[in-house]
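hey m, so remember when u said the tokens were messed up on ur end? i reran from scratch. heres the input so u can diff it against urs
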Amino acid sequence: MIATIFDIDGTLVENFGFDDACYISAIKEVLGEVHIHSDWSKYKNVTDTGGLRQIMEENKIQEKGQIKEIRTRFGEMVRQYLQNGGKCLPKEGAIHLINELLAAENYSVGFATGGWRHTATMKLRHTGFNFENTVLTSSDDADERVVIMKKCLSQLGHNFQRVVYIGDAEWDVQATEKLGWHFIGIGARLKGKCEFWIEDFSDYNTFIKMLHV
């Protein structure tokens, strides 16, 4: 049995930057004109809660319920964007791949995202993914990506021959290395930066072979 755990944004779902824009807008609406790094890799924890905590620390703002307020406002913005027909699409071949893995007996599927759960489920539902009977851990479960990923695996079970994480960013690679899991990179950002890499999920057979290497 192989545990296949997927990141969401940029991996399964193409959000074309709207997610970051809504996140920054929600933060500034609640906290004011705070300084936010344009490069997310400058944050110790590239997760919705982890990044927000660091933004507040660097801007010397004491937490007094603002995280919950920003989370709520962010969710409203994402919901509005999707309801208004904003661009948000599944990565090519991703829906078919997830359906095939869920139907197979030798794979266990989970989602571990640095985003908050409410917006992650909005995007998965909007783009047509079947995730109702799967495990999904998020920034609501922990600030650190490594902990989010470990919690996902724990909920899937423990009797796995291999654990493979699929992600699109450098912080996904780093978190996977810390855990000692196998990794498959996807998309332009990781091209040439990891041993196993695919552009998208359009070649189903190639991806399945990588799960077993």
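this time it looks ok to me. The chain has a mean pLDDT of 95. if urs says something different then somethings off w ur setup not the seq
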